[in-house]
Specification:
This protein has about 240 residues and is of the alpha+beta class. The chain contains seven helices and 13 strands. The strands form three sheets. It has a six-stranded mixed beta sheet with strand order 6-2-1-9-8-7, with helices on both faces.
């Protein structure tokens, strides 16, 4: 069994940033991802262009979060959207701002963002293990044991960044919630967020059409933004929000 100071399960943006932070502070760090490449879900965001963040104020950001976003104040006080912009620019990524304050890489390619994160991880000396599915996690004698089908790793600290359940095809199957329940952590009820809407009306004639400033409402939620018709229903910022 190989030992690390910190093991991170899940190679999306949260996992990659957690790996960078851990390695930056001198921790021997391992990032484990079950897909062949890091950032599979990130690669599809923003229509494949990657909407990195928004350049608005903190209040603007919190207003766009369903439910009570105020709990994020403490997090954003340590690392906010402008820190994200500075991070990528400092690491060689040129960014641009579009309508509604949305920030994209100038290349219009998600791969630019993923590559910048991978490069930073390698620069800091952390280890990356892709195509490796974690099958169990337990704690023995104050150390975490993380098992794949053919390997076992131990660590002093464990960070789980496996995502929710919105896109199972990208690897977000809810496994992180299973880990939380195993360690008897409280898991709140899951709600859909940042995911498209499935509809039952015909889509073929509308697929690919996008509209500006469309208002969608559902219950108490009301969002005005761009809308995209897809083969399964509705996507784009209005639907995702």
């Amino acid at each position: 069994m190989k030992h690390f100071d910190t093991i991170i399960i899940g190679g999306g943006p949260a996992g990659m940033m957690a790996t960078i932070a851990s390695a930056f502070y001198g921790q021997q760090t391992l990032l484990i991802e079950k897909n062949k490449r890091l950032g599979k879900k990130l690669a599809g965001t923003g229509g494949g262009r990657c909407n990195v963040t928004n350049n608005g104020t903190l209040d603007d950001l919190l207003a766009g979060i369903p439910g009570n976003g105020r709990f994020l104040y403490s997090v954003f006080s340590q690392f906010d959207n402008h820190d994200i912009i500075a991070f990528f620019e400092d690491n060689g990524v040129k960014l641009k701002v579009e309508d509604h304050g949305r920030v994209f890489p100038k290349t219009d390619k998600s791969r630019t963002i993923i590559q910048a994160l991978e490069n930073k991880i390698q620069e800091l000396g952390a280890s990356i293990l892709t195509n490796t599915e974690v099958v169990s996690v337990k704690k023995v004698d104050e150390q975490f044991q993380v098992k794949s089908p053919d390997q076992t790793f131990t660590s002093d600290k464990l960070i789980v960044t496996t995502g929710g359940k919105s896109y199972p095809s990208t690897g977000s199957t809810g496994f992180g919630h299973d880990i939380a329940r195993h360690f008897k952590l409280h898991v709140t009820d899951l709600e859909a967020a940042e995911s498209p809407l499935l509809t039952d009306f015909p889509h073929k004639a509308l697929q690919g059409i996008s509209l500006d400033d469309v208002t969608l409402s559902y219950g108490k939620h009301k969002i005005t933004h761009d809308l995209l018709f897809t083969h399964f229903g509705l996507s784009g910022p209005a639907a995702l929000r």
